[in-house]
Structures are given as structure tokens and as C-alpha cells.
Amino acid sequence: MTHPSAPSPERDKGTARIEAFSDGVLAIIITLLVFGIQVPSRETVAQDGLLRALLDQWPMYLAFTASFFFILVMWINHHRLFLAIRRSDNTLMLLNGLLLFGISLVPFPTAVVAEYLDHPEQTVAVMVYNGWYFVIAIFFNLLWRYAGHHNRLFDAQTDPALVAFITRQYSVGPLLYLGAALLAFVHPLVSLLASIALAVFFALPNRDVDRLIGQ
Amino acid sequence: MTHPSAPSPERDKGTARIEAFSDGVLAIIITLLVFGIQVPSRETVAQDGLLRALLDQWPMYLAFTASFFFILVMWINHHRLFLAIRRSDNTLMLLNGLLLFGISLVPFPTAVVAEYLDHPEQTVAVMVYNGWYFVIAIFFNLLWRYAGHHNRLFDAQTDPALVAFITRQYSVGPLLYLGAALLAFVHPLVSLLASIALAVFFALPNRDVDRLIGQ
Amino acid sequence: MTHPSAPSPERDKGTARIEAFSDGVLAIIITLLVFGIQVPSRETVAQDGLLRALLDQWPMYLAFTASFFFILVMWINHHRLFLAIRRSDNTLMLLNGLLLFGISLVPFPTAVVAEYLDHPEQTVAVMVYNGWYFVIAIFFNLLWRYAGHHNRLFDAQTDPALVAFITRQYSVGPLLYLGAALLAFVHPLVSLLASIALAVFFALPNRDVDRLIGQ
Amino acid sequence: MTHPSAPSPERDKGTARIEAFSDGVLAIIITLLVFGIQVPSRETVAQDGLLRALLDQWPMYLAFTASFFFILVMWINHHRLFLAIRRSDNTLMLLNGLLLFGISLVPFPTAVVAEYLDHPEQTVAVMVYNGWYFVIAIFFNLLWRYAGHHNRLFDAQTDPALVAFITRQYSVGPLLYLGAALLAFVHPLVSLLASIALAVFFALPNRDVDRLIGQ
Predict the structure, then answer these.
(1) Residue D207 pLDDT class (50, 70, 90 cuts)
(2) Least CA distance to A24: which residue of chain C?
(3) pTM
(4) Measured between alpha carbons, how far is residue A84 from residues A75, B8, B24 in Å?
(5) d(Cα B144, Cα B153) in Å, to the nearest integer?
(6) Residue-wise DSSP of C120-149
(7) What is the least distance, in Å, from the CA of B71 to any CA of chain D?
């Protein structure tokens, strides 16, 4: 969203511009999610009362909450990547754009699951929702693998232990999200909760990363 | 929303990234509130005239105004906290994420109260609205208590008088908001106005804080 | 939206935080205006064709365009003020918050005029629209007069010629906007165009200001 | 959206403020596009099933995807311009405002094409969509030609080879977009795909620009 020393942002081939623009996009998406939550209509309230009508909307709150924390975890992950990635090129900008494209679509599957979680079509809704996180995990992998190929965009300050940690984490991430998505055939709500558990797990304070990064 | 010296934002364990991202989220939420205000429909205008139809929407304006200044006060408070909090860790990032989650939901209770303040269900609407501010006050407290436990995230530059002032203020804040919420059982509109009065009170220029901070 | 050297933003009593937050809010509002423009419904298109249906929406385009450039002019004005205002206090933050409150409401009168410019109630719609710019002009004046009272928030680098120029401009601004608003009783469209002309006039490259500022 | 050294942003006549504000506006627009994608209604889903209903919305996804990458390309282009443009004046601010005006309208033609691509009026819809990109290309040209007239806003650090490259690219850009728009009379979908191909072409990593900029 900003870059303080604007005159030569591309000349130094740094990543500040990409990170700032990405932060901006992520802050906006996480904030816009709330607009998927609708106020109960006067008809529903006349019939059930406002309190009951509000409680009946629990799938909306669940979908909103899940997506909020998913995007927060993605934000943390994105920054972790750019602790290792120290240089930039045009291809990185496009792959990062692809990733932002994936994340900026999140409000749509969120709205789908909010509308159809409590409905016979819930399996499709959860498949779409969790499946989209699988796609985003692939976009994250593309970015990371491009940057890490022969250490293309790393430099001397990049911590090899951090690189190893992220590479390990990223080789299982998509599979876990795919597994959570496929659970929808067994039980849609469990599938959704499994995805949320994955996000919480990735977001937990991690002593190893803290040790790697914190000094 | 931005962080000028991106290369090692986590390495220095500072709070710049958290504050910038939070500022971005708060600026977006405060701006999006206006979309809860709807233009009167052609049917209503045909019946009552545009002026009357606009004036009849006073609960929308009241709800919008209250939420705008609530979020402005929260922004001022958030910055005050980070005058004392000088270091960051993963748990702080999660607790701050929880706080942003709370604040980013504000447009929803705002829309509920805008729609149902002038309606038999007004008690529930105001309870939801004021109750949510009570929840946010608790999230603020969690953040502050985590940071302040054994001075965990303070440093030598943290002003002890400022810490004492915030701690004093935060120990009564949630109770006051809870009291304002419970007033809804007596009189919904008075309850809403009490909450607004609380926000105005916390936002008034405070000579003590100015003295602590200003030099 | 951001503040690079976050650790002690209030301690130096500068205006960077206020300006950055204001810039963020203004960028968001100017961008959100487009959501007042609606796609013609399938019914209208079936009857009139898409091209005709799009052209019939000219009041929406006019309202959007006017508000976009109004907010752009306000952004330029806001920055000009903070060329002179070099220090900050709590009251300035509140008065600036009041100004942002005024500006963040702009999408609402924009939507009113877009819906009712081409309608018997057009006089009321334009009065609301232009009247709101009059209110914002007053908020700008409050901010400026508070800061300038006995040079309260100026410092040695504040250019007296710039102060005189702004003071002169601000003493007539509200009256001109009020005049444009009252024109709505004579002819609503002329009143709207007069307001736009005022904005264009204030936004024209001004040799005097350029000379004052440019060196 | 931000400007780190706020005290005298206009005094140094740099372009940081313009670039930061533009970045903010672009980040917001690219993020808001997703709200043009609607969840299929319960009626449609009851009739066709959720999966089929989602797939039938392909024009929405196509329009969203095209506009997302168009705006990403515009962001890259905007930054490239400001590698050459090193100084600012009031006219540049207005011309940049005109360009942002053009870009901020993009969600509207996107919604038009999303709604009417799969409809007898598709030719008009695609003409409006591609035609708007032609208008934006003209706004880009105005900005560039104003800045480059007698090297008005360049300085000693501006790379003449970069200027020559941009000038060459900009002299054909509008014509190509116009050609793509006129293709709509032959085949609307081909016209839309031609526009997307143009955007992809301009976004491809360009060895010449990289060589010019990268060192």
C-alpha cells in the first residue's frame, strides 16, 4: 500500500513494494469479510423474534470467523516467506499477484458456505470452500519453489534453517488441506472444522520458528 | 498496511508491523460503516416525500455516528497501548488478531441496531450492539494483560505512570460497557446513548495522559 | 494507514500519524464510491436495450464523478493544511476525526442524488448533497481555526504567506458552497453543476500556492 | 495511502505522496472486485443444484479474473512510469487523479460484462468493458506525455532508454485496446479474450525492461 522511498523501488530489486502492496490487499480482504453477514429480514424477525433469527444465522458467523483467521494465518505466512526471500524479479511479482488473486477471492467461497452450510447442498458448499484453500496452498508453493530454486531469490542473510523449515511445512500443507476438503464427502461440518483446526495449528506460536527468527 | 523497512520485520521483534496492519484494518472498517446507510426506496419517497423519508431513517444515522466514533476511540486507545508495548511475539500477534476480529465485526451489530432500533425488538438489538463493545473491551484487556504480565513486552522506555494509567482505565472499562448494555432492559435508547457517552468520555482530551505522553 | 517509526508516534507530537490515517480513509472512500453505480436490471434491458439503459443512468455517473473529484480536492486541501500545521494534540485529533466523519459520509448523499436527481424530489436531493459539502467546509474551518488560534499548532517553519492564503480561502469557501446549495431552489441541476465548478476552481493549479510551496 | 516524512510532502516536489496514494487506491479496487461475484440464489440452486449453478456463473469468474489482472498490470505500469517521472506538480496530481478516476470505475464495466456476457446484449457489454480500457490507456498517455514534454518532470537520473521504451509502448497501447474493443462487433467473447491476451502480453517478464531497470 505504500513505499516510503519511492524514487527507485524497482532499481534495488528489494521486496518492500511487494510486501507493502500485499499487506494492503490482505488488510482490505480481511476487513471486507463482514459484509457477507446479513441482518435478518423483518419477515424472519416478525416470525421468530430477533434473538432467534440472529442465532439461526450461525453458519454465517462460522464462515466469517473461519475465513478471518485463515487470512490472518496467510498474512503471517506471507511475512515468514519474505524473511527468506530477499530479492525480487518480474516473475515473483506475477506469482505473488497470482497468490493475491487467490486470497482476494476468499469472500466468495465464504459467502457460498455461509448460505449453503445449513442446506442439503452442504457437501458441495464445503468442497468449494475447502477446495479453494487447497488452490491457495498450491499458489503459495509455486511462489516458494520459484524463489528457492537454486536459491534464486535468497541472499547471504537468508537463514538456511528457516528455508528448511518452510520447505518442510509447505510440502505437507496442500495435502492436509486436500484431505480436509475430501472429508466433506463424509461429513461437511467436520470437514470445515478440520480446515479451521489446520489453520489454528499453523498459527500457534511456534517455538522453533521463534528461535530461528527471534535473534 | 505497510512497513517501510521490510527486509527483517520480525527479526527486530518491534511492533511496527502490528501497528501498521492494525491501522490499515481500522481505517478500512471506519470507512465501510457508511454502507449500512441505505437510500430510501422509491415507494417510501412516493408516499412520504424524500425529506420525511430521510428524516425517518434517524436510527441509521445514530448507529453510524456512534460506531464511527467508537472505532475512532479504539484507534486512539490502540495507539496508546503501543506507546507502552515495545516488543512483540507470536502470542501478541494472535491476541491483536483477536482484537481486530472483534473490531472488524462492528459493522454487523451496527446494521442490526440501525434496522431494529425503531422496532419492538429494540431491546435485543441494543443488547447485541452494546454487548459486542463489552466483548471488544475484554479483548483489549487480554492484549494488555498479556503484554504487561511481569512487564513481558515493555522495555526501559516504557513509562510506568502510563502503564498504571492504562491498567486503571482498563480495569473499569468492561464493567462500564456491561452496565451500559444492561441498561437496555430498562430503556434501549438510553442504553445506546450511555455507550456513546462512555466513548465520548474516553475520547476527551485528557490532561494527565497528555502530560505523561507529551514530553 | 501507516506510520513508519511506530515506537513513539505520539511522543514527538508530530502530525505524521494523523496524515497517514487520513490519507488511508480518503483513499478508501474515493474508491468505494463506484459501488453506488448499479448495473441495469434484466427487466430494464429487456425493454430498452443495454445501451439505452446504461445511458439513462446518467445521474449516477454525474453523482459519482462529482463526488470523486470533490474528495480528490479535499485530499489536496487536507495536505495543504498540514503544510502549515506542524504540531498535534488531542483536540486536533478529534477535530480531524470530525472532518473524516464528514467525508466518510459522502457516499450516502451521493447515492441520494444518484437515485433522485431525475425525479420530482430532485430539489431535496440536491439540497442534501450540496448541503453536506457546506457542513464539511465548516468542519475544515473548525480544524483550521483551532490550529491557527494564536498560532497554536504552527511552528517556525510555517510559512505566514501560506497561512494568510488558506485563511482567506477558508473564509469564503463555506459561503460559496452554501450559495451553490441554495441555488437548488431555483434549478437543481444548475446547483449541482455550480458545486462541481467550485471544486474544479479550487483544484486548478494555483500559481500563487505553487510559488509559496514550491521552493 | 501514506507518506513517511509527512512534514513537507509538497515542498520537496517528489512523487512519493502520489505513488503511495495511487498504490492505496489500486490495492483497494483490486480487492473490491470480488463483490461483483454473487452467490447463486436458493431458487436457482433448488432447480439446478449448487454445483451447476456455480458453473453457470462462468461469465462472472471470467470478468473478475480479467479485471483483477488488468489492474495488476496497471499497477506495474504505474510504477514503471514513476521510475522515469521524478518530480511532481499540481497538473501531474490532477492528471494522476484522472487516471485513478478511470481505474476506480473498473468494477462497474466488470459488473456489466459479468451480467450480460451470456445474453443477447453481449456486444454492447463487451464494447463498454473494452472501451473503458481504451479510455484508461488514453489517461495513461496524457499523464506520460505531460510529464515527458521537454522532459518537464524527469531529472538527471531518469534513464533515456526507459523513456524511449515507455514512449514506444504507449504509442501503440491505446490502438491495440481499441482494436480489441472493435472486435466485439465480430465476436464478443473473442474480443474479451483479445483484451486479456493484451494484458498478459504487457505483464510478461520483459528482458529489456529488466536489463534497463535491474542494475
Answers:
(1) low
(2) C1
(3) 0.84
(4) 15, 9, 25
(5) 10
(6) TTHHHHHHHHHHHHHHHHHHHHHHHHHHHG
(7) 19
Question: Comparing D70 with C200, which gets the higher pLDDT?
Answer: D70
Separation between Cα atoms, residue D140 and residue D96, nearest integer Å: 8
Pairwise CA distance, residues D112 & D61, whole Å = 13
Q: Which residues of B touch A (CB under 8 A)?
A: 1-11, 13, 17, 20-21, 24-25, 28-29, 32, 35, 89-91, 93-94, 97, 100-101, 104-108, 111-112, 115-116, 119, 121, 124-125, 128
Asked if the model's pLDDT at residue A119 lies above 80, the reply is yes
- 8 Å CB contact between B5 and A19: no
3-state SS assignment for residue C85 = coil
In chain A, the percentage of residues whose pLDDT exceeds 90 is 42
Measured CA distances, C98 to A180, B193, C108 (Å): 48, 18, 17
What is the C-alpha end-to-end distance of chain C, expressed in Å? 28
In DSSP notation, A18-74 reads HHHHHHHHHHHHHHHGGGGPPPPPHHHHHHH-HHHHHHTTHHHHHHHHHHHHHHHHH
Cα gap A66→A77, rounded to integer Å: 16
pLDDT tens, residue by residue, D37-47: 989 999 999 99
Residues of A in contact with B1 (CB under 8 A): 1-2, 20, 23-24, 27
Count CA atoms closer than 13 A to B46's CA, side-chain side: 3
What single DSSP character describes residue A158?
A: S
Yes or no, beta carbons of C29 and B24 under 8 Å apart: no
What pLDDT digit, counting tens, does each position of C74-125 carry? 888 888 888 889 888 878 888 999 999 999 999 999 999 999 998 899 999 9
**Phi, psi (rounded to 5 degrees) for C118:** -105, 55
Please give the pLDDT value at position D122: 92
**What are the pLDDT digits (tens) for B8-67?**
333 345 787 788 888 889 989 998 898 889 899 999 999 999 999 999 999 999 999 999
State how far the alpha carbon of D95 is from the alpha carbons of A7, B134, D90, D138, in Å.
19, 47, 9, 11
**Amino acid identity of D43?**
E
Give the up-direction half-sphere exposure of residue C134: CA atoms within 13 A in the CB hemisphere: 16
Structure-derived torsion over alpha carbons of residues B199, B205, B207, B213, reported in degrees to the nearest 10: 90
Asked if the Cβ–Cβ distance from D27 to A29 is below 8 Å, we say no
